Amino acid sequence: MTDQAYNFAYLDEQTKRMIRRAILKGVAVPGYQVPFASREMPMPYGWGTGGVQVTAACLTPEDTLKVIDQGADDTTNAVSIRKFFQRTAQVATTEATSEATVIQTRHRIPEAPLTKDQILVYQVPIPEPLRFLEPRETETRKMHSLEEYGLMHVKLYEDIARHGAIATSYAYPVKVEGRYVMDPSPIPKFDNPKLSNSPALQLFGAGREQRIYALPPFTHVVSLDFDDHPFEPSKAPHDCDLCGAGESYLDEVITDDQGGRMFVCSDTDFCRTRREEGHVGRLGEPQFSSKKIANSFEGICAPEEAAE
Amino acid sequence: MTPEALMGGFTAPPQHSSRAFRAALTALSRPGTIVTVEGGHGPAPLSPAAAILALTLLDGTTPVHLAGGHDAPALRDWLAFHTGAPVVGAEGAAFAIGTWAALQPIPRFAIGTAEYPDRAATLIIEMPALTATGPRLSGPGIDGTAQLSLPEAAAFRANRALFPLGFDCFLTCGSHLAGLPRSTIVEDI
Ligand SMILES: [Zn+2]
């Protein structure tokens, strides 16, 4: 034992046991929200305390952790959570999706395909997909138990009647293994297809609402839709202006006060990796491959290396 | 209490339990995968893998049922000292430990409720052998199909028919363990 004031990965063993048991039941019943007794964490609820608790319960000393916020590794939120686990669990960290064994995410699924050696932990603000239809927990629980999902389809169909298409573009509801309707957290619906049949284990933690749920690897996940209005994952109809990628999810960035704007990959590691591989977008500049050099120093590729 | 009851706990609980949990998580989320665990042991007939699961998952809030030969004074003492889990009858158990024969009849165990399917028992089944042969598994966690040396297929098929209700299992043998959640479809081959 060491004399540090906190336990490995911050949470005490009793709390981790309780969270671990909830995670295992979540895995056994994919898409079902398992209640758990969320603990106070040294960060505000909006900062993903549910995801942080799930990550804390899963981390081993041998893990390499990546934390992303809307696809980026360098936001205040992502940096804080990464530092928190560096300090409390002494785990290695990385910005490279391919090097991570545990990835905590807010609002995105990485572009690079995940592997069977990875766990993706989602920060979830509102885990209940039926909440906006029915505010009472006792009622939504009953609806899930009876598979009473008709209202959800009615809501989506009202969208079509009003807008000509399903307007929901984030937190687009899915059905898991033909049973539970699940909120995939506020990822763009562009990411929804990646939920299904992933080789990685996906865990979801909602701190304020005290729920944990899971998608085991190779679980069948379908976005709700209609025969005459099939689900369409959508993105801005552009290529990335830095790396030229045509298949990645893009953020629109205002570049000056004259109305200038550009589209860049929301996944910063994906974009940097492509640029290091020599891909150049409309506004990008050719990059020298610094990654191979960085790897030879077994260091983590610093964001500066790929900066303009 | 025998001196044996004090032995076999994790020497570095946070680290040992984190690795053991990850192994259990891998096993349950990838049915058919056999993993190895280390760091703890308990009195016979408890296997090291079952002991490590107990050290990792059990505490004063998780009633445990000890079936057949596992309901032994030395094992009760060991569990009480290391986990504090109360020993109870099958019906009220969150966890149960024993051989497949000793755990019968299986319908005694909690399968959860329609609104809280998580309130179901986890069976830790002590096996004479554990190999990737036998009944065919498919479903969540499995890329296509897998095989696992289950004690039988019929009971797990009946359990799957209850989904989303049902019990969940770990199968243990020596330092090895595998998982079988209620979601797995089991077929004889
Ligand atoms: Zn890009």
Automatic annotation (TrEMBL), chain A:
Classification via InterPro entries: PhnJ
Domain of life where this protein originates: Bacteria
Keywords: 4Fe-4S, Iron, Iron-sulfur, Lyase, Metal-binding, S-adenosyl-L-methionine
GO biological-process terms attached to the record: organic phosphonate catabolic process
GO MF, one example: metal ion binding
Family: Belongs to the PhnJ family.
Function: Catalyzes the breakage of the C-P bond in alpha-D-ribose 1-methylphosphonate 5-phosphate (PRPn) forming alpha-D-ribose.
Listed name of the protein: Alpha-D-ribose 1-methylphosphonate 5-phosphate C-P lyase
Organism for this UniProt entry: Fuscibacter oryzae
TrEMBL record, chain B:
Pfam family, one: PhnH
InterPro entries named in the record: PhnH-like_sp, Phosphonate_metab_PhnH
Keyword set, alphabetical order: Lyase
Keyword field contains Lyase: yes
GO biological process: organic phosphonate metabolic process
UniProt GO MF annotations: lyase activity
Name of this chain's protein: Phosphonate C-P lyase system protein PhnH
Native species: Fuscibacter oryzae
